[in-house]
Amino acid sequence: MRLSMMRAGTLAACAAMHVAVANANANANAQEAASTDAKQPDYVNEPLPPSGDEPGAPTAVEPASADAETKSEVGPNAGSQVEEVIVTAQKRSQSVQDIPATIDAIGAEDLKDRQLSSLADLQSQIPGLKFDPVGGSSNITVRGIGTTFTTGAGENSVALHEDGVYLSSARAAAMGQFDLQRVEVLSGPQSTLYGKNSTAGVVNFISATPTSEFEAGTTFGLGNYSDKKAQAYVGGPIGDRVRARLYGDAESRDGYTKNLTTGQGLDDLKAYGGRLSIDADITPFWLMEARVTARTEHFAGPAFQPFDPSSPPLPSPDIDYTPRELNTDVIYDSKRDLELASIRNTFDLGDNLSLVSLTGASHFHMHQIYENLAEPPFSVPGDTPITFKTASQEFNLKGDSDKLQWLLGSFVYYESSHVSSTIVLPAALVGSPTDINNRGLESATRVSASGFGDATWRISDATRVFGGARLLHEYMRNNLTNSLDTEGTTVATVCTPGNPEQVYNDWATTGRVGVQHDVTEQAMTYAQLSRGYKAGGFSNNACGNEYKPEKVNAAELGVKSRWLDRALTLNASAYYYDYKNLSIEQSSLAQTAIVNAPKSHVLGLDLQGRWRLTQTWGVDGNATFLKSAYDEFISSGGAALGTPDGTSLEGRALNKAPSAAGSLGTDLKWAAGQGGFVSMRGETVLSSPYRLREYDGSASRQAGYALYNAYAIYSPIEPFTVRAYVRNISNTDYVVGTIVFLQGAVAAFNQPRTYGVEFAYTFH
Q1: N or C: which end of the chain has fewer CB within 10 A?
Q2: Given this model, what pLDDT does residue 41 score?
Q3: CA separation (Å) from 302 to 20, 37, 216, 422, 743?
């Protein structure tokens, strides 16, 4: 009896198995201002370097300096200026308007008020950012560049950091993002200061900082899909030199997708997590910041479903193409855990010198279990445990003078991963005297080491030049085993450890150079050239499938400006990327291989604006325009989607790179009652059509769409706040990711309409 007897819905479920068990198929992740006695930014020349001197450090989103605070209180538009935002994106505390790069920052208040609790929520706020959770992995793109892998192989082209610790696993990218003080998104290659795999950009998640005064709070929320949330935190001083913060949360909701055969709700969530943060002034010249984060998620999935009648996975009368509906006998069960720890030590060495040491470690484990991967009466179970362990160490030595700011650093990173899978094929199903075990095992080790330097030299009061370079070494050893065995005896082996030997060993140099000029006190322009690098590696599915490192040469011109006595902020940047060896995953019936597009390019424009028309009314918006194309790329694996192997893909737009996208929002806030307030916000998120895959068929394209979100806040008295939200008001459906399976296509969809209300109470 053959697996082809399964229903097409079951095959769609198997596609998820194909993703998560890839080895087996080879055979068949209130804005909180700093307290009055918090450390000041380093350019204020306080004796102790600031908490927040690095990208993962917890610096509040606050006015850039005392001067900025004064300016915000004078002039005809007093009280209606756009807030100055401090970031640590360049490993120094700086105003976002003074940095010669495209950087977006969202502070704690906006994160809470807009219920932004995940990468999926952030994409409506950041121009050019797309986040698509597919097959348990998190595909992130910025400006049309990213990683669209579904098997969990490789690393993202957008580097994620939580409190400065690099998260390599695409499966862990959407975890641990709670109780945040700020999110920073850097667009474009960041391979000088961040180095490892940041060709498309960097996202920094910065947790809330312990304060020197007692604080506590609790939040309870309810929403559709039986969504229930609870959060609580407590923090403050522990003695004269130590401050701590303890945060915890839990959430439970029903699934967005319904399995019509079993009644199981898929893509549901049961989760809990927390963080302990401790800051200690060990001496007047030594600050230690420790963070320990943990998160556990339990869900039914990941699941795919047929979505395009022109590309059914297998002809069957019971295929359901309705978004978030699935016909399959498969029972899904998955769990994943993330533990993350970091210790940052900042030393003031005197004479405007400081040394920062950042030590990080993470442990990620995911377990996916499937039952009934065949039609009754057969029960074919699948089991896939996945483990990632990492450790990293970074040192930064920094100096400042009137003319020169400089930084020297080193970075060492170690990662070990282990992915195994087992599918038990019943004897009667395969016509064997005994059951047959289809086993896959991938174990890999990655080591990365680099040294880097960066400097900014002030030529005059208005003009600065900057530049830097990074020398890095990447090493990877990968073992892939795929075999069939029965009663302990190996029947057949496709891949064996060391045969072929899978070793990746490479050196690279990246860097940047540019100039920055203040046209006026309120307007700055910049131009820069940069080079990015992303390490190559091996597929965790196809034996001997090595993919090449990605390299990008980028040019960017930008302007940042303030108008109308700082009531209006307008920023723009134009850029060009010359990309080599963009990595693309291509799934087929037999395996999922990774191929490289030898040459491609991106030409784009980013626009951002915020305008406080009055103290109560503001508008904001962003837009990104792209013209991307493969310059050299030959199709393979796309015959089922309308593109025969050997077809030239020259001139086709890159995957998940809409030619135009953006958002527009407006907010109102006014006083209510005795010291209370009411605020409301509405926003629209727009995207033009784009390619899901590089092929021709309709299953490879996503139509343009518009999403609408609304938020309301009521705080009758200071400690009590009620927040309400509705996202995707029109309940618009679009595909976030696809894979090819059994000569057809299956997909995962975006979140449907969600709404809810939460009640928050703070104690001081």
Answers
A1: C
A2: 33
A3: 9, 47, 36, 17, 20
Distance (Å, rounded) from C-alpha 439 to C-alpha 26?
A: 10
Residue 138's nearest CA partner among 308, 19, 9, 254 is 19
Which has more pLDDT, 265 or 27? Answer: 265
Contact call for residues 31 and 109 (beta carbons, < 8 A): yes
Task: Please give the residue that has the higher pLDDT: either 298 or 433.
Answer: 298
Q: How far does Cα 297 stand from its chain's mean position?
A: 17
Encoded tokens for 535? 């390490």
Beta strands 257-259 and 325-326, pairing class: parallel
The token pair at 483 is 């075999």
Considering 90-104, 245-259, 315-329, the range whose residues carry the highest mean pLDDT is 245-259
Report how far residue 666's alpha carbon sits from residue 622's, in angstroms, rounded to the nearest whole number.
12
Give one DSSP letter per residue of 102-170, joined into a string: -EEEEEHHHHHHTT--SHHHHTTTSTTEEEEEETTEEEEEETTEE---SSS-S--SEEEEETTEEE--T
Question: CA–CA separation, 749 vs 73, rounded Å?
Answer: 47
Asked whether 149 and 137 are in contact (CB, 8 A), the reply is yes
Name the one residue in this structure whose structure tokens are 């030529």. 459
Q: Name the pTM for this structure.
A: 0.83
More confident residue, 542 or 269: 269
* Bond from prior residue into 377 cis (ω within 30 degrees of 0): yes
Average pLDDT of the chain to the nearest whole number: 81
How far CA 78 is from CA of 69, 83, 373, 566, in Å, comes to 11, 12, 65, 9
- C-alpha separations of 748 from 324, 628, 673, 691 in Å: 8, 24, 46, 15
The string over 79-108, giving b where at least 16 C-beta atoms fall within 10 Å of a residue's C-beta and e elsewhere, is ebbbbbbbbbbbbbbbbbbbbbbbbbbbbb
Give just the sign of the alpha carbon dihedral 109, 112, 118, 121.
negative
Q: What is the DSSP letter of 96?
A: G
Q: Return the bridge partners of 343, or none.
A: 290, 359
257-259 β-sheet, strand order? 265-266, 257-259, 325-326
Q: Is 555 exposed, middle or buried (0-12, 13-18, 19+ CB in 10 A)?
A: middle
Could you give the CA distance from residue 583 to residue 547 in angstroms, rounded to a whole number? 7
Q: Where does the pLDDT of residue 379 fall: very low under 50, low under 70, confident under 90, or very high at 90 and above?
A: low
Render 252-284 in DSSP notation, one character per residue. Answer: EE--SEEETTT-PEES-EEEEEEEEEEEEEEET
The amino acid occupying position 430 is V
Q: Of 39-53, 301-315, 501-515, 669-683, where does mean pLDDT reach its minimum?
A: 39-53
306 vs 329: CA distance, rounded Å: 15
